[in-house]
Amino acid sequence: MNSGFSLRSGHDQMICGPVPFLYTQVWFQSSLADLMVLNWMGMSLLSRNSMKHLVSRFIAFITREVIREIHRLNGDREKPRMKIDMNALVNDLCSPQANASLQRFFAGNHRFIAMLSERNRRAAANTYDFIDEAMPHALFELNQMAVIASRSEDIMRLDGHILDLGVYKGSSTRNLAKIFPSRTIHGFDSFEGLPVDWSHALKGTFGDMKGIIPDMPANVKLYKGWFDETLPLWLAANRDKPISLLRVDCDIYSSTRTILTVFEPVIRPGTWIVFDELIGYRGFRDHELRAFKEFIERTGFKPNFVSYGLTYAMLYLE
Fold first, then answer.
1. What is the reported pTM?
2. What CATH number should be reported for the domain holding residue 144?
């Protein structure tokens, strides 16, 4: 099998484990197919730094999955190390050879590619219509947490609560705990998955936690349950301060509406909001964005968008 890129010795990202080369090559090539699709369909327009960051995040995810499987199959035996050269990988991923390999791979399924391409083209056009209208001067930055960190002093001027709605496995919540080490991060999730169907995910998606609460740093408090049950109880005990940062990662309209409705009394001018899935996919106007527009119309707040990525957007209210 030849995907147009290779694993080489180098630095930056490391996968550890007793993995035969052939297994690693096949597994890794297949896992990067989605990134190749994105690149072939237009992601090569991203800057090199943005592409490198996207690949780095993808590799970090793959690394965890590979290590988990290694441990399952091989126990705790001593593990030789293999390194991935990030610069070489980005060069290979963006290369003509990779694109040619991908085209050959999908040559027998051109209708699928045409449909996927048109679907993504329409979603992108719809997204950029909204961006031009609502946030023409906002920064495009893939790394959401880097933007939050860069604005941490502005966020804390309100001296209020920091909330993460949609904890899932806890990656973003842990990052917030690092960015704001002296503050308590309040995280909310059912840990049971989506309560209803989303635009491209069925009810129960993201439910692989099966109700299990992930381990968190000492400055994180987690609240397990559906938002319409947990948020009013939290608000009743925490009305003394406004919300400084509200991070919304619940995807669907009904949950976003619940969040903004319940927390309306403690959302003030100067509150920062991050919506993780505000834009960037087919049907985005029907979910987090719809609930936010209703909130703005109801309250009269003015949103000031600071940055956006492939799906997220960050703003503060006036």
1. 0.66
2. 3.40.50.150
